[in-house]
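User: I'm writing a tutorial on reading structure tokens. Could you give me a worked example: one chain, its sequence, then its tokens, then a sentence or two explaining what the tokens reveal?
Assistant: Sure. Here is the example chain.
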Amino acid sequence: MFEELANGVFRRRYESLDLNVGVVLGEQGILVIDTRASHVEADELREELRTLTTLPVRWVVDTHWHWDHTFGNARFPGAEIWGHELCRKTMVELGDSMKEDAAVWLPDRLEEIAEVVITPPTSVFETAAGIDLGRVVVEMTYHGLGHTDSDIVVTVGEVSFMGDLLEEGAPPVFEDGFPMSWPGTLESAVEIGSSIIVPGHGDTLDRAGAAAQLEEIRAVADLAHRCVEEGIPVTEAAILGPYPPDVMASALERALAVEH
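And here are its predicted structure tokens:
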């Protein structure tokens, strides 16, 4: 169930996709960070929120546009939905392809995915924004290209929710990422991050764990640069990296396609 990370700040780690959801209690309402992979999963989340409080969900924050974090948005119709401006843009423009991607990952839930009502953020920002919950202010910051073009960090005191800029228990996913830019973005994010870091998937991290993953992503970027500058083939570079060769090949091919 929900784990209290700080006073009034919770996370729920779901078995489905090993996804983390954040919850922050305010004076007159609550804020939810990421809404899961469908309306069905969001309804489960809504039921579980009742074990924490009777207050309504007044704010939702999308850490980025990927379907596993945003397809539950429609189930919070009374909430302000916040995200980076590029998060909204992508969800508006690529809704059908997002559903296609979800269907590949969840082939036994095609009808459920088809019924999702894609609901982009209604409140967006470019660099930084804050939401005053009465008892606490939730800070949202954008640091640049990383796992996607729209990843944000959501900070509440000593807790930072970093979405898929960081992973725990599995390698990062690079398919929509910017592997050469990701290290600088993550370095900036970790610098402002708190002592308790919640990745998009997996267990919580401390600053040392985040720094270790930053070094791995730097190694990926360095290999991508070598592919460009020294002409090393992707297949050869892929066996030199910190992640399995298939993950490395995906990262390097993506880097050469979008950042070269």
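What the tokens reveal: The longest strand covers residues 20-25. The chain has a mean pLDDT of 97.
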